[in-house]
């Protein structure tokens, strides 16, 4: 069994949370125009720092993340805590912020607020032909689309590719079936991988991906 800790939080923006940001994070925080974007960002980094500090036995202010992009050498890549043996992933949408943490395996998480996006147009960019057919047969296409989306984005966040890799190269199970990868082609493809749907509450879809063949034991808790 691989233990996978999921922490949910609501976005808030308090001075003691901002105080933990490092210089580069502070610059990013300052560049966000909207208060809700600032809150989602600062809450995510606070959640990650607090949970990781606890896991490694250090003070939160001493936790420094790397964010190297393997493609261009820039600093917008997957946040990591090198040397810890731990991997984590953050996601935020609407009034949900979520962190997934595991030891010894790469993890990815994604939460999506269900919105009135143009599903037919987006489905062309996100889903395989078989998935589009399955979606069209669903009663709640909005829920189905966001479930597909969050599963695929969680996978691409586990590998660190993010949306730089095509979602249409991944074929996942139907939203009504247990989450699993059916097929994955292309450079970003990895195996073995485990996929699980999370419980973000009504109006949201969320999934976690873990690059392991071990069965997952997922514990979801609220962080207050
Ligand atoms: C990662 C990505 C999918 C996030 O998309 P999103 O739906 O807007 O946001 P989410 O809330 O789900 O996730 C954001 C979090 O993912 C994490 N993240 C950023 N880049 C990541 C990556 N490459 N892999 C995994 N996680 C990543 C960060 O923790 C970020 O939170 P932050 O704002 O606190 O830093 C998107 O930013 C992306 O595709 N980035 C990579 C693009 C890229 O590499 N292009 C090539 C450049 S050379």
UniProtKB/TrEMBL annotation:
One of its GO terms (molecular function) is transferase activity. Pfam families: AASDHPPT_N, ACPS. Residues 107-207 form the 4'-phosphopantetheinyl transferase domain. It comes from the Bacteria. The keyword Zinc-finger does not apply. Residues 19-100 form the 4'-phosphopantetheinyl transferase N-terminal domain. InterPro entries: 4-PPantetheinyl_Trfase_dom (IPR008278), 4-PPantetheinyl_Trfase_dom_sf (IPR037143), AASDHPPT_N (IPR055066), P-Pant_transferase_sf (IPR050559). The keyword Transferase applies. Keywords: Transferase. Belongs to the P-Pant transferase superfamily. Gsp/Sfp/HetI/AcpT family. This is 4'-phosphopantetheinyl transferase superfamily protein. It comes from Actinomadura monticuli. The lineage of its organism: Bacteria, Bacillati, Actinomycetota, Actinomycetes, Streptosporangiales.
């Amino acid at each position: 069994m691989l233990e996978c800790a999921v922490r949910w939080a609501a976005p808030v923006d308090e001075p003691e949370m901002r105080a933990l940001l490092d210089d580069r994070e502070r610059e990013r925080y300052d560049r966000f125009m909207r208060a809700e974007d600032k809150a989602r960002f600062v809450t995510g980094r606070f959640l990650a720092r607090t949970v990781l500090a606890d896991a490694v036995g250090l003070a939160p202010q001493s936790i420094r993340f790397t964010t190297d992009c393997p493609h261009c050498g820039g600093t917008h890549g997957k946040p990591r805590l090198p040397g810890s043996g731990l991997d984590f992933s953050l996601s935020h949408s609407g009034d949900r912020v979520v962190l997934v943490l595991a030891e010894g395996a790469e993890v990815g998480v994604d939460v999506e607020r269900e919105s009135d996006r143009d599903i037919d147009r987006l489905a062309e960019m996100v889903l395989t032909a078989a998935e589009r057919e399955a979606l069209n047969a669903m009663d709640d296409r909005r829920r189905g689309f966001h479930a597909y989306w969050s599963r695929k984005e969680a996978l691409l966040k586990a590998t660190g590719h993010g949306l730089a890799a095509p979602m249409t190269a991944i074929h996942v199970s139907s939203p009504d079936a247990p989450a699993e990868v059916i097929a994955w082609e292309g450079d970003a493809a990895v195996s073995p991988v485990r996929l699980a749907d999370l419980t973000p509450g009504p109006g949201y879809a969320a999934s976690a991906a873990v690059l392991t063949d071990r069965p997952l034991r997922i514990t979801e808790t609220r962080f207050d």
